[in-house]
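Deliverable D4.2, example record:
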Amino acid sequence: MRILFVSNSFPNNLSISTNRSVGGTQRRLDMFIAALREIGSLDIMFYVPSHVPTDAATVAQVEQELSDYWQTKINLFLCPRFSLPKWRQQLEGVFDFSKQAAFHNTSGTEQLYAFEQCLNRNPDAIFIQRLQSIRPVLTTQQPLPPIIYDIDDIEHIKLIRQLQQPPIKLSKSLYYAHVPALWYGECRAVYRAQCTFVCSQGDRDYLTYRWNLPNVVSVPNAITIPEALPLTQEPVLLLVGSYQYPPNAQAANFLIEDVLPALRLHCPNVKLIVAGVNPQHIRSYQTNVPNVEFTGFVDDLEALYRQARVICCPIFAGGGTRIKVIEAAGYSKPVISTKIGVEGLDLRPGQDFLLANTAQDFAQACLELLKSDALCSAIGQSSRLVVAERFDLDRVKQQIQKQVLHTVMSDLATIPKQPIGL
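Output generated by the structure prediction step:
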């Protein structure tokens, strides 16, 4: 079986993208590649930034690097992303989601042509990663094999949450006008696909029962369950993320500016490690805040988690589910999170994590865990059991494979059989 995998999430820096400290989108892409490579051959098309060369020599080099990383032979195709003036994104985005800032990259004629060239290789199925990559499927006039479409974020919810975050400005509020077109585009994409994957049962229920969308299946983010780490006695908090993503930068600002000052009144030697790429997007990055360490890119996540006593996830916007919480629980580290930070994971507050939605509650929860070894151990062990049961990579890979094969076989069963001539 040949599978065409289409994505707008090109790994710009392979030395970083092939490490476990990358963001959730890349980690989810890796999960699907790991599952699909076992049931078929892979043609992969990335829409890439304009600075990425797309000549034959570059494509061949990157194809080999990604084949080595994913441990399977892939056929790679690169196409430059479409560029649209900002004023057109703002104006035309009111009527068409594919003209909006986050989604216009695949909406040009060159991008459609590149997709249709890949169709000439006669794939048996097409896997579309995220709404950012779906536009060619919606516009092509060519017949298509079964479409499997993955949603890691429900984008209209993500946009509304982003607009609700301070500061509230008129220019920002005008983007509410994009919400209807974005919602309609998401509905079209789900209807066009034979099967749609989402990150959680909550997202599935929302699309299935709120909007009556068909063939939506919950496929959680998953990890290889690591060995549990011992409890750390040092008062070290850890935040992990990619800080070009605004909700992660907001989380860092919240911890540094609102939580730490209150926490230091009771625990003066508390330390916060802010780990991940692009920390320059954090307001206090250049101000030398006492007891705050910005690590940048980290190539050994286990060593990082080993240092930490408490893992923080103060996320107030965004969508999908956070692999950082799954990973922390896998290491048996206690997590403090906002409601949105653990959304879709079905973790139990007070048992699998501590819930805190305000700075005062977050500081209090940190203090409780810093003072109590028993509480740290209980929460860490309980969350690890949940993660091992629900988010184990091998188990989720098997779920993906069964669903893809079922979708392809079901489509074949609907093709009318030709009569045999006498």
